[in-house]
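Quick check before the chapter quiz. The format below is the same one you will see on the exam, so make sure you can read both the input and the output lines.
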Amino acid sequence: MSKEFIAAEMALFAEQAKEVDIIITTALIPGKPAPELILEEHVVP
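Here is the expected output.
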């Protein structure tokens, strides 16, 4: 995935996080640490 795609995806996550009370994510790559999809700035005003 390109850097532009990831930036757009993170911006979308940030906007959506403002509208919900709970976020459930699942992502796992075998043999690697789970990716951080939701960052602190997405959920802390």
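If your answer matched, good. Residues 3-17 form the longest helix (15 residues).
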